[in-house]
Amino acid sequence: TTSxxxxxxxxxxxxxxxxxLLHKEYFPRKYKDLCTLLLDEYMQERxxxxxxxxxxxxxxxxxxxxxxxxxxxxxxxxxxxxNFNELADKLEIRFIMLFTAMLxxxxxxxxxxxxxxxxxxxxxxxxxxxxxxxxxxVVPLVNEQTVSSLQSVSHFVAAFVDSAIVPKNVVDVFVxxxxxxxxxxxxxxxxxxGKYHKDVATSFIEACKSGTAADVIAMLLEKxxxxxxxxxxxxxxxxxxxxEAIQGQKMGKAMKLFCYNYxxxxxxxx
Length: 270
Known about the structure:
This protein has ten helices and seven strands. The protein has helices at about 30-45, 50-60, 75-80, 85-90, 95-105, 115-125, 195-210, 215-230, 245, 255-265, and strands at about 65, 70, 105-110, 140, 155-160, 175, 180-185. A hairpin with a 3-residue loop joins strand 1 and strand 2. The chain is globular. Mean pLDDT is about 85; it is low at about 1-10.
């Protein structure tokens, strides 16, 4: 007599639920919080209507109950997670090329093997313009399908995980922080360094060693304010900066060119 026992094993199925939120504003912390909240709303009842109701509140009031409100996020949240120390450690005074690129609203390509590292670096570089009220010029994770869109953009900080697809003909500054590499690829004449740049670079490295990200931003604001005060003395009756007025200033040739290009980039020059 043969006895056969059949065991039926029950399979445990894990269902993963994802939410993709598309928005033109680049503000990782703000929209990560929003995605988490919307996903929680859906998971509580696993029904579309609850999610739709939350989205309606978001559209009409720009908030969801007392749990999330766009107005709760400020510039302080925008710079959360930036890593100025890494820039100082790996680039040292060469970081000034990125500071210059941000103030002149140039085009920067960032390469990192880890997408998360690339995005952190993009946010850090974008924060080198301390007067920026948004980081919408950050282009996260460019791939072969989206790289052509950079051709028509005049100012960006774009993240890549594949250096082979970086469009070097439209990029002013190329950064590979993992290898400590930074190159000016285009508009090289606008990246000349003067005493001002050396002062900013030295102050940046010191602030990174002894302070927080907020301290670095405060230092950069002071340096940009110095630049703005120079431009105030170079304005005509219409309030625009003129090249002739800048040429009359007692400063080096590189600084004169930088001041004028800074004014042009910010709509202050004629």
